[in-house]
Structure formats: structure tokens, C-alpha cells
Amino acid sequence: MTLRNSLLIGAAAAGLALLAACQPAEPPAPPARASSSKENVVPIIRPFPLAAMNEPQVVEFELAPPGPNASSSLSIGIRVRAADDAQVAGIAERVVREGGPAEISLERIESSGSQPVPLTRREFKGFEPSEMVAVDAEGRVPGAVPDSADETSLVDAGLAEKDGHYRTLTFAWAEQITPGRYRLHIRLLAPGSGLETLPAELQLAYTHRAK
Question: By the 8 A CB rule, do 76 and 170 touch?
Fold first, then answer.
């Protein structure tokens, strides 16, 4: 190789190195939960197509104490989302109207075994005020109803955006629940046709504490 060729190759290599140094850095990855160890800690959001299920979805999770904006009731239900308030309100109304019944059970996991956790649901009787009633031994609930989750904990966990448009629909509540490890079984029985295309997710979260 001649001296001239060696100089040309060296100059080209230096130019490429300088060009690479001037390129912008790769953008950071989108934010996620702080650690994978938090994925099974309430609040929890999981994919949950609104379609009839032959077998229940089972979720084992850890429940930490509620935050300052949360009550001591755990909401077991659905979160729907959309691009704006009008869209998400329409989706939520459709799920309430057509979502159909579900079977739900919750148990607390102890070193000595598991213990069933009592659940409540909201019951409507015509034009009379609704009331909270116990979920029966079979775990059957007639459907999901509008509710309000502790949004602060969802945002802090990286599961919601501050300016996002969401609605919470609850099947059942575990009231005055204490921190610990739990196992949930939930099965949709007869949701309306076409609901499986809606942007719905399983949501386990403390409810928002009323001021």
C-alpha cells in the first residue's frame, strides 16, 4: 500500500469517527414501572378482553397499605380508556350496559393456607337508592358499575398518565382489606357481542378516598 493510499484511508476513518460522534443520542426508553418486582403489587393493570371465558383469570398479588388519597377498599374491576372524555364516557356506558355478569372470588394467602375474603357489590332496585350487599357464595355479580380509583397511585406506578382519559368500572369491593398476599379468580360469563374490541383492562386498585 502506498503512502498516499494510507493517508487517504486514515483521513476517511477519522471523518467517519467524527460523524458518528456528532450523531444525536438514542432517545431514552419510555417510562415503565420502577422495577419488575412491582408488577404484582397493587395497583395492577392487566390485559382483559371483554369476552366470555371458559376458565377464570387468576392473579396473585401483594397489597401494600393505601396511600394518602386512597380508601381502605380494594376495587376489583375494569379500566377503560380513550382519546378524550366523551369517547371514554361512551365506552364506559356501553360496558356497564352490555358487560354482563361475572364470577369473582378473592382469598388471602397465609403460610397456613388460604382464607376467603368477603366481597361486596352494589345493588340497584328500580328507582330506589342503590345499596351495598354481600357477594354470594358462588361469587356471582350482575355486572360492573361506575367507580373512582385512586389515580395518584396509578400515576406514581407508571400505569396512568396525569392527563389521560380513563374510567373505572367495579365488579366488587374488598372493604377494610389489610395488606398482605392475595389470589383473585375472575371470569366473565356473557359479555355483549363486540365488546372484545374495546380498550379494556383488568384493574386492581384502591378506591379514591372521599374528602
Answer: yes
User: Which residues, listed in sequence order, are joined to residue 142 by a DSSP beta bridge?
Assistant: none
**Residue 78 predicted with pLDDT over 60:** yes
CA quadruple 103, 109, 112, 116: dihedral sign: negative
Mind listing the pLDDT tens digit for each residue in 140-187? 999 999 999 999 999 999 999 999 999 999 999 999 999 999 999 999
Cell numbers at 140, concatenated: 356471582
Q: What is the pTM (predicted TM-score) of this model?
A: 0.81
Q: Where are the alpha helices (DSSP H) in the chain?
A: 3-22, 85-98, 151-156
Measure Cα distances from 124 to 99, 101, 143 in Å. 16, 14, 11
Query: What single letter denotes the amino acid at residue 11?
Result: A
| ∠ CA 188-177-125, rounded to 5° | 55
The dihedral built from the CA positions of residue 105, 64, 33 and 164, taken in this order, carries a sign that is positive
Burial of residue 97 (number of CB atoms within 10 Å: 0-12, 13-18, 19+) = exposed
Torsions phi, psi of 94, nearest 5?
Answer: -65, -40
d(CA 90, CA 95): 9
Strand, coil or helix: what is 16? helix
Nearest one of 19, 45, 21 to 32, comparing CA atoms: 45
Alpha-carbon separation of residue 198 from 36, 43, 78, 91 (angstroms)? 27, 21, 11, 8
Cα(73)–Cα(209) distance, integer angstroms: 9
